[in-house]
Specification:
229 residues, alpha/beta, homodimer, two-stranded antiparallel ribbon, 35% helix
Chain lengths: 229, 229
C-alpha cells in the first residue's frame, strides 16, 4: 500500500521506517522540500537533521504535503499538533476520501512545562481535523505512546493497548490492519468509539507526561485490565 | 484511625464500608443530616436511599460535613465534583492540617452525555481544593476507577494501578498506607507527582468513560506496562 506520512520529525520518521519495513511504499510529506533537505541542525531531542536520517533510508522519498497526500492511499498526520491544521490545509483536496490517521497531540509548550493542550474537553484536534476536512476518514490512533513503541509493541514486558477513535468503521478496520503489520495483536487494539472519543485519547497526554517524568523513560504504555471472565 | 468521608453517595458508601471493614472508625459527612436521614428515594443508578443503606451498616455514623471533618484524622472528599468546593467550605477550618484525599471528578453533566470536565487542562479540582484550603494536605487518589475496585482491587484478573498526586509527601505516605489496607499492593500505587499532576488524573476520565461504554462495564482499570528490565 502507498502510505503518506506528513511530518518529518521523530514520529514521522519512526512510522515511515516501520511501514517501510512492513513492505509498504512510504512517501513523507513536508512543507518545503528544499528547506527540509537543506537542514544541517538536529532537533532539541538529539535527533539528526532529516537529510542525515534519509541517507540511511534511501527507499523513503520526500515530497510536499500535497504530493505525498495525493500519492498515499492512507495518509498519516505526524506533524506537531499545533501545526497540524495548517499542514493538512496544504494537502487540501488530496485528503478527500482518504483514511487519515491522526497520531498528533495538540501540545502547547508556549507557556512552559508541562505543556497544556491547545484544544481539550469540549473538542479535540482529531475532531477539528474531521470538521475541517469532511471528505477525509479521520482515525485517531497511536497518539498515546512514544514513537518507538508504535512500531515495536513487543519491546515491553507484557501486552499493552493501542486505541482507535473515528466515525468510519471501514477506516478503522484499515488502521487495525496496518497496526497488525506493525506487530499489534488484535486483542490489544481497542476501539473507543467515534471521533469524539479522540478527546479522551488526547486528554490522556497530561497523565502520560507525568508518568514519563516519574518513570524516567517514555518506554511504557497502559493496558486495560478487566474482571475475571 | 478516625476517617471522615464527606458525601453519602455510592462512592462514599463504598469507601466507608471498605475502611470500616479494615478496622477504622468511619464517620460520614453530609450537608443536612436530617434531610439525608429522611430520604426515601434511591438514586438514578438504582442505589437505595441512605437510611436503607445505613440500617445495614449501623457501625457507620452520619454527621454534618463540619462535624465529620473535625473528628476525622483523615478526610476523604467523596462528594460530587461540581459540589466539592461548597461541601468542603462547610467543613471549613476543620480541614486545617488534615490529610484530605480527593477522589472526586469534576464531571459536568449539564450539557448532556458524555459529560465534560468543569475544570481541566490548566487547572484541576484537586488544585482548586488545595488553593482554597491551604492548610489541608490534599492528595488526589482513586478517582480513576469505579468505587467497587477502590476497596477490592483483587477483583480484576491481574494487578492494576492506582495513582497519587499531591504536594505533601507525608500525606501521600498516609494515603499509601490506607490503600495497602484496602488491598492495594505497593507496586501498584503510583505517585505521579505534585498536586498539579491531578490534572492528568482528572483528564483521564473522558477515556475512562469511553472505555466503560465500549466494555459495557465499569469493572476495569489500567495498568502501566514497562520495558523488560
Amino acid at each position: 500500500m502507498k502510505i503518506a506520512i506528513l511530518g518529518t520529525g521523530i514520529v514521522g520518521r519512526t512510522l515511515a521506517n516501520g511501514f517501510s519495513q512492513a513492505g509498504h511504499d512510504v512517501l513523507m510529506g513536508t512543507r518545503d522540500v528544499t528547506e527540509t533537505l537543506a537542514r544541517k541542525e538536529g532537533d532539541a531531542m538529539g535527533n539528526p537533521p532529516f537529510p542525515e536520517w534519509q541517507r540511511e533510508h534511501p527507499e523513503i522519498q520526500l515530497a510536499t504535503f500535497a504530493e505525498a497526500a495525493s500519492t498515499g492511499e492512507v495518509v498519516i498526520n505526524a506533524t506537531s499538533g499545533t501545526g497540524s491544521l495548517d499542514a493538512l490545509a496544504a494537502a487540501g483536496s488530496a485528503l478527500e476520501n482518504k483514511v487519515l490517521v491522526d497520531v498528533a497531540n495538540p501540545l502547547d509548550f508556549s507557556h512552559g512545562m508541562p505543556p497544556t493542550l491547545s484544544v481539550a474537553n469540549t473538542d479535540s484536534l482529531a475532531e477539528q481535523i474531521q470538521q475541517r476536512f469532511q471528505g477525509a476518514k479521520v482515525v485517531k490512533a497511536l497518539n498515546t505512546m512514544n514513537a518507538r513503541l508504535m512500531i515495536n509493541p513487543s519491546s515491553l514486558s507484557e501486552d499493552h493497548d493501542v486505541f482507535l477513535a473515528g466515525d468510519d468503521d471501514a477506516a478503522k478496520e484499515t488502521v487495525r490492519h496496518l497496526l497488525h503489520e506493525l506487530g499489534w495483536k488484535d486483542g490489544n487494539i481497542v476501539d473507543v468509539g467515534g471521533i469524539q472519543a479522540a478527546r479522551g485519547l488526547e486528554m490522556y497526554l497530561p497523565l502520560w507526561l507525568n508518568l514519563m517524568g516519574k518513570l524516567g523513560t517514555p518506554d511504557f504504555n497502559i493496558k486495560i485490565v478487566k474482571a475475571t471472565s
